[in-house]
Structure formats: structure tokens, C-alpha cells
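Q: What would this chain look like folded?
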Amino acid sequence: MNPSRLDHVSFRLDPSDDVAVARADIAPGDHLDDDGRLVTVPAPVPAGHKLAVRGIAEGAPVRKYGQVIGFASRPIEPGDHVHTHNLVFRPFDRDHRTGVDARPTDHVPEAERATFDGYVRADGRVGTRNYLAVLTTVNCSATAARAIARQLETSGVLRQYPGVDGVVALTHTLGCGTAGAGNEGFEVLRRTLTGYAHHPNIAGLLVLGLGCEVNQIRDLVDGWGPAADRPVRTMTVQELGGTRRTVAAGVAALEEMLPAAGALRRVPVPASELILAMECGGSDAWSGVTANPALGAAADLLVRHGGTAVFGETTEIYGAEHLLTRRAVSTEVGDKLLDRIRWWEKQVQADGSSIDNNPSPGNKAGGLTTILEKSLGAVAKGGTTALCDVVRYAEPITGRGLVFMDTPGYDPVNATGMVAGGATVLCFTTGRGSAFGCKPTPSIKLATNTPLYERMRDDMDLDCGPVADGTYTVQEMGRQIFDLILDVASGRRRTASEELGYGDEEFVPWQLSTTL
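A: My prediction, written as C-alpha cells:
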């Protein structure tokens, strides 16, 4: 018998961890040398999954990342595969002290800060893309909106305006069959539509309604105020006399906007004008080891250069929120985050559900067992800088630094909220292989492992897998992501999602209202 070294076939993320992560599949009967202690593996441990490095009593907490990821549902022996069959979620107290780990940001001197080429709008905000958009007030105008965008995209007229990235139809399933003004769900929808209408990646806007919906077009648009360089036209299907006339009128309205939009040019601007949205979807056990911490390092770089990074998915930081409150710049910011956590606890309880219904089956197949484990990996996207603000869904992101937005964990809803808040570029990490885009904001796809990257090359922009084998450090990969963000923001590179046409169907506002 010639046992393999435990640290050659797996790795521990923190010295206090009870589990190690398998680098590759470990077979039953394999013998492992843990610093002179022989460990025999009784059952298969797939790559990315956890194996116990010490005995754990039934009911005892199990640690990974140096944090509790769950509790043993039966006695666990060294070498055992640790997963859903012997590890369970259980609520427990966490240290939510505010600001104890907050540190001042070491900003890069202004003269040395990175730049990108962007579109400077009249209000001073800077876009990374230059779209025309059709924004619907209600689902009933969605078909007409898509027809308008499709006709312009296929007519060939856009070839005359290479500076225009395209026409996007922002359609959804809401807008009627619900209470109106004063209703929380209705206000969230209005806030989301308003955020997209003012987005710096949109150069011209057609707002399209049916006519009789609860979400009346005039009430919505009147609250926006004028925009000097962003023409806004409104129309309804009922007033125009039906779908064919609406499509013709909509096409004509957008064609009038094309010359001005096409005349806009990119100019060099500081990276501090970027708002980076960060998302993880189709996560696996490598997410919290490679792509997420590397994205966190990129976010740290952006913040050091004066920019803003935002992430959300409140249900997917649950159990790790104390790591953020400890970095909050004030008690007010920390309390805002805890208020949202409590809201979600009540929400799932009223629904007869559990926050631990997440992870998904795909997450579990990838080695994630509990929401606590998933959240600890997801929080890594937030890097190490201080948490400067917490905002509600689709609220404008106005502060600089690291921001958290309260959103559901469902990827399209989360991304829609952050884009509505003003995010001009998005980085999306995935371990299982999510396919996603979010026009008008470009979406950069980061693979957590090399097999995924090789299998889905057409959908991925960067392979973060080399972090796992030590080819790159987290900081080095973070620098690659930061440079890629600048290239994409400047238009020097289109993302895989853009090349594939993703983003037309992924506008999904959060539905909070009861459907009547």
C-alpha cells in the first residue's frame, strides 16, 4: 500500500475546516496520508465535493471556509464523503457586529487610475453600450414591442449606424391585474422600468403600452422628467388602432432616433464611472474557490480605482451575512442588511418554505450541500473592501464603493434589479454552465472550472479554473477579470453572450404583487 498525500488530492480552505475539497474524483478504498495519519475513503468522493478530515459527532457543526456550513446528521468519520446524506441545515446564531472588520480603502492616486472608452450622457453618467430600446408598460404590448425591435434589427437600416449596438425589446409579464400606486409590487415594477428608462446604455427610448392597463403610460413617464440627450416617445396599441399600425409607428419613431444615436462617440473616461454588477448562477463547489473570490479581487481593484461594485441575491448570502455586516461602514448600513435578512425569513416562513430549499439540484450535484455553504462562496464576490451601502431592489446606485442590493436569488430577476439600479457591466460566474445575457448591459461569463470552460467555450469569456491548480493566484485572476471588464466596457470586446444574442428575454422584474 502506497497512500497518496491528502493535500495532493484535496485542499483545505482554512486550517480550522472539518472538510477538504477533492481536487479530482477519489475512489472507494483509496488510502490517504494526512501527515502520517492513514485515512481510508469508504465511498466515492466526486471532484469538488467534501471529504471529512477529522471525526465529527452527530449534531456537531461542520466547518468550511473557517465558517459553519451545517450540522452532522449522523456520526462522520475521517475520509467520509460529506454531503446531503450526513450534513443538514440548521439555524444558528451568528456574530453580526457592525464595522469591526471595515478598513479604509487604499485608493489608487487619481493620476494613475485606469480608464475606459465610454459614452458620456448629458447627466454625467457614462454608458458602456449604445442601444435603442422599446420598454413595455404591460405584458399586453410585449408582442408589438418585439415586432418593432425585430423589424429594425432585420431591415438592414442599423448597418448605416455602426455606433448603435442594436434595438432591445424590454418586455415582461406584469403591469396589470394588480393593485396600483401605493402597492409594494407595483412600485417595484415602476422603479425597475424607471431605472431602465434612465440607463446610460440607452440612447433613445420608445415606451409602449396597450392603453387600458393599471400601469398607465402617462403616469409612469410624467415622473421621469426631461432628458436632454435621450429622446423618449410614448404610444399605445389601442390609441394607434391595433398591432400593425403600432409596429409601423414604433419603427418610424426609432428610425428618427437613429441618426443622433449613431453620431455618439466613445471618449476616454475614468474607471471610477463604472458600476459593476456581480452575479453567480449555476454554482458549484469551485465557485467559492476560484471565480467568486477572483471576481471579488477584481471588485476590490475597481473600488480602489474609485468605481462601484454591486451584488445581491439576499437568499444566497443567508448564513454569511455576518461577514458583510462586520465590514459595514456604519451601523445604519449593517442594520439595513439585517432588516432585509429578517424580511426574507418572514417571507419564506409565511410561504411555508425554507431558505435552505436553495441550493438547487444542480448546485448539489456540483458539491454544494446547504445554503450556508453556498452563501459563503457567494459572498466571496464582494471582495474585501468596506460595505458602503445597502439598497432595495432596483433602487438607484448612487454611492461609490461596494454596495449590496436586496434581490431574490433567481438570476434574471437579480440581474434586472442591478441593471435597473444603473449597472453598466456585469460579471456572471458559473460552475454548472448558465447561459445568460442582460441587454443593454454586457454580461461577462466567468467559468469556475476548466472542464466547463472547455465544454461551453462559446458561452464563456474567461476560465478561472487555473486558480484551483495554482497556475494563477486569486489576485492574478482578479487582475485578468479587471482588464477584461475595461475591454468590454470600452467596446473593444463583445462578450460571448452578446455574440449569441442573449439578453432579449432576460428582463424579468421582481413580481411581488398578488395577481388579481
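The CA atoms of residues 115 and 270 lie 4 Å apart.
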